[in-house]
Amino acid sequence: MTIREILDYGRKLLSQAQIEYPGLEAEILLSGILNKDRVYFYTHHQELLDAISEEHYRQAIKRRSQLEPVAYILGKKEFMGLDFLVNRQVLIPRPDTEPMVEYLIEYLQANFPDGAKILDLCTGSGAIGISIKHFYQKGQVALSDLSEAALTVARENANRLVNGDLSLYQGDLLAALPQGETFTVIVSNPPYIRQSEMKQLAPDIIAYEPHLALDGGESGLDFYRRIIREAPLFLKKNGLLALEVGDEQADAVAALLDRQGYHEIKKIMDLGGHVRCLTGKFTKTKPMDNNKLG
């Protein structure tokens, strides 16, 4: 089949599967398989595909027709201009997280030009921490996750993108860290979906992405409470905690930060103009009493 014919085939099947943008996704999948820019298809539409590429494409279209995310089919996702390897053990990095990462890179470059220690907690694919390391090379970055399988993906991404120049810890949130370890910045995109909303997620999310990285408990705030309470033990004086938040969670998480004694609480907007991240600094030597976190 020619490029035009195989794209018509893909577009037709994805349309039948009610994929929202069948033409675009048909091209994205072929672009990933052939490692060609989509513009190439318009200038080489009569070019014949080899049998192996054609079969790979047919299988990719079949998987997408079953609603498997494109990133898992291709095994990669672009984030901050970098290609991250992904599989079903890790959440797919989203563009809405990029403004938080850009803010942190600018903050670190401006305030700590000679270097600082950064922890990416609940790292998944490592997208946040590795991106910070890539653009802030003097930083000492650590990645942590409960999932050993996720850390395997993060380690591979670190080896590819920053020559493995960071640390990895496996364990339950901050309990994974060595005693006495402290950081200038702790950043986390924790699970924050309310349990009652899990079944309402898009089919391609609920059927394929890891629930461990999505389920934030009954209120969606379980992980925020723990991180906000425990982070002061691992933050340097006046250290910064940055948290990605879900829709309509900003006020609740800001209140948790305020009650625990964080100050200079700031909101960072995502690409759609919604609050997607909160940052706060901590100067006290001890965290407040656990009962004060609602």
What do these coordinates show?
Substrate binds at residues 189-192. One of its GO terms (molecular function) is nucleic acid binding. Residues 103-210 form the Methyltransferase small domain. Belongs to the protein N5-glutamine methyltransferase family. PrmC subfamily. The protein is of the alpha/beta class and 294 residues long. It folds into 2 domains: 3-66; 77-292, Rossmann fold (3-Layer(aba) Sandwich). The protein is 38% helix and 18% strand. It has a 7-stranded mixed beta sheet with strand order 5-4-3-6-7-9-8, with helices on both faces. Strand 1 and strand 2 (82-85) form a beta hairpin. Helix 1 packs across helix 2 (22-34). It is elongated, with a radius of gyration of 21 Å.
Short description:
The chain has eleven helices and nine strands.
Cα distance spanning the termini: 61 Å
Could you name the CATH topology of the largest domain? Rossmann fold
Under CATH at level 1, the class of the largest domain stands as Alpha Beta
CATH architecture identity of the largest domain: 3-Layer(aba) Sandwich
Coarse shape: elongated
Number of strands: 9
Helix-strand string: HHHHHEEHEHEHEEHHEHEE
Helix content: 25-40%
Major sheet strand order: 5-4-3-6-7-9-8
Structural class: alpha/beta
Percentage of residues in DSSP E strands: 15-25%
By DSSP (H or I, 4+ residues per run), the number of helices equals 11
Question: Largest sheet, if any?
Answer: 7 strands, mixed
| Unreliably modeled segments | none
Q: Mean of residue pLDDT? A: 93
Radius of gyration: 21 Å
CATH homology superfamily of the largest domain: Vaccinia Virus protein VP39
Any idea how many domains? 2
